[in-house]
Design goal:
By secondary structure, the protein is α/β, with parallel strands linked by helices. It has 15 helices and ten strands.
Length: 421
C-alpha cells in the first residue's frame, strides 16, 4: 500500500505549462473517475490551482509511472516533456508534503491562507466523485487539523507579506473599524484588485475605483460592489476618501498638494490615509507634508513586508516542528493498517473455533448433561483450541533458538518476567 503525491508547481514549471496541466473545477468528477478507472489507483484527490496541479492517490505498489503517464496523456503532452517538471513523494514524504501545502509552507507567498480552502474544495470534489476511501479520508481530515493547529499555534499568517495586504493592514491601524470608511482606489491592475479584495474582507463601507479606462473600472467595480469613475473625476471625489490606494502607470503624479488641501477643507481636516504603490509615483511627494495626511510609499511598505517575512520564516520553523510530530502520528496510523488483515483473520479463526465448541456444548445440553459440566467442557475445550497453534509455534521457536520470536510473543501476549516460573 503506497500513498503518492505527484504534480507540478510554481517552483518546477513555468506558468505556460501549469496552465496546460490544470483541471477545471467543473470537470473534476469526470476526471477523477476516469483517473481511477485508467490507473492502479484505488483512491484519488486532484488539487488544481494557478500555482500547482497535484494528484494524491492510493496505489497498491510504489510505482508513480502510471500516474505520471496518465497526467501527460490526459493533457496531450509527451511524458518526457512533463517528466522534468514533475515531483513525486511517496508515503512519509507524501504525508509531509500534503501537510506543508495545506499549511501554506509550500506556497509562493509563505503562509498564505487561500490554499487550505482550495484543498478543502478538492477533497469535497473527490468525495462527490466517489474516489475517496479510508486512507485519503483520514489523510485529509488529519491535514485540515494540522493546518488549523499551525494557524493557531504559530504566527504564520499574522503578518502582511504583499503590498496590497500591507497597505490595508496599515490603514486598519489608523481607522480600526472600516465599516464607516470610504476607499478610493486609483488603477485597475492586479495590485488594486488585491487591495479591493482585502478591503472588502475587512468590511470596508464603500469603495470607489478610478481608472484611465472607465470600462475596466466598471468591470472591477461590479465585482466588488463599488462605484467607478474616470481619473479626471478624482478631484470631485477625493474629499469622500478616508483611504486612498494608488497604483497606476501614469508617468506623472495624479494627485497634487492643492487638490488634497481642498479635499481636506471639505472634510474639515478629518485624516486621510494614502498609499502610493506606483513607480513613478501617483501622489506628489509634498502631499506628505500636510498635517492630516498619512502618506506611505512603496518603499515604506517594502520595509514592513520584509520585517513581516522574517516573522513568517520564524513561524514556518515552528510549523515544521508541528508537522514533524503530526507526520509520526499519521504514519503510525498508516502502519496499523498493515495489521488489520491479520487481526481480521485471527478473529475470524477464533470465532469459528467458538462456534464449533459452542455447537458441541449445545448438543451435550440437549443430551441431558449437567449444565455445570457443559460449561466446564466449553471453557476447557475453547481454551485448548485457542492456545494450540500459538503454543506449538512457540515450542518450535524455542527448539530452533528463534529468540526474536519468543521476545515478540512476550510483547504480544503482555507477559513479563514476573509471569514466567
Amino acid at each position: 500500500m503506497t500513498l503518492l503525491a505527484l504534480g507540478i508547481n510554481h517552483r518546477t514549471a513555468p506558468v505556460a505549462l501549469r496552465e496546460r496541466v490544470s483541471f477545471p473545477e467543473a470537470s473534476l468528477t469526470e476526471v477523477l473517475q476516469g483517473f481511477v478507472a485508467a490507473t492502479p489507483a484505488s483512491e484519488a484527490v486532484i488539487l488544481s490551482t494557478c500555482n500547482r496541479t497535484e494528484i494524491y492517490c492510493h496505489l497498491p505498489e510504489g510505482d508513480e509511472r502510471p500516474v505520471a503517464e496518465w497526467l501527460a496523456r490526459h493533457h496531450g503532452l509527451a511524458p518526457e516533456d512533463l517528466d522534468r517538471h514533475l515531483y513525486a513523494h511517496l508515503d512519509e514524504a507524501a504525508v509531509r508534503h500534503v501537510f506543508r501545502v495545506a499549511s501554506g509552507l509550500d506556497s509562493m507567498v509563505l503562509g498564505e491562507p487561500q490554499i487550505l480552502g482550495q484543498m478543502k474544495q478538492a477533497f469535497q470534489a473527490a468525495r462527490r466523485a466517489g474516489t475517496v476511501d479510508t486512507l485519503l479520508n483520514r489523510l485529509f481530515q488529519h491535514t485540515f487539523s494540522v493546518a488549523k493547529q499551525v494557524r493557531t499555534d504559530t504566527a504564520i499568517g499574522a503578518s502582511a507579506v504583499s503590498v496590497a495586504f500591507a497597505a490595508v493592514t496599515l490603514a486598519r491601524q489608523i481607522f480600526g473599524d472600516f465599516t464607516q470608511q470610504t476607499a478610493l482606489l486609483l488603477g485597475a491592475g492586479e495590485t488594486i484588485e488585491l487591495a479591493a479584495r482585502h478591503l472588502r474582507e475587512q468590511g470596508i463601507g464603500r469603495m470607489v475605483i478610478a481608472n484611465r479606462t472607465v470600462e475596466r473600472a466598471h468591470v472591477l467595480a461590479a465585482e466588488f460592489d463599488a462605484y467607478a469613475i474616470a481619473l479626471d473625476e478624482i478631484p470631485a471625489h477625493l474629499a469622500e476618501a478616508d483611504i486612498l490606494v494608488a497604483s497606476t502607470a501614469s508617468p506623472e503624479p495624479l494627485i497634487h498638494r492643492p487638490t488634497v488641501e481642498a479635499a481636506l477643507r471639505r472634510r474639515r481636516h478629518r485624516p486621510m490615509f494614502m498609499v502610493d504603490i506606483a513607480v513613478p509615483r501617483d501622489i506628489a511627494p509634498d502631499v506628505a507634508e500636510l498635517e492630516d495626511v498619512y502618506l506611505y510609499t512603496v518603499d515604506d511598505l517594502q520595509n514592513v513586508i520584509e520585517e513581516n517575512l522574517r516573522s513568517r520564516r520564524e513561524a514556518a520553523r515552528q510549523a515544521e516542528e508541528i508537522i514533524d510530530v503530526q507526520c509520526l502520528h499519521f504514519l503510525g496510523w498508516m502502519r496499523s493498517l498493515d495489521a488489520v488483515a491479520l487481526i481480521r483473520a485471527y478473529r475470524g479463526r477464533a470465532e469459528a473455533l467458538r462456534e464449533e465448541v459452542l455447537a458441541k456444548a449445545r448438543r451435550r445440553l440437549a443430551g441431558g448433561h449437567p449444565p455445570e459440566k457443559v460449561l466446564e467442557f466449553l471453557a476447557h475445550t475453547l481454551t485448548n483450541k485457542l492456545l494450540h497453534t500459538p503454543s506449538s509455534t512457540l515450542r518450535e521457536a524455542g527448539f530452533e533458538g528463534r529468540t526474536e520470536l519468543l521476545e515478540a510473543a512476550r510483547v504480544l501476549l503482555g507477559i513479563d518476567d514476573q509471569d514466567t516460573p
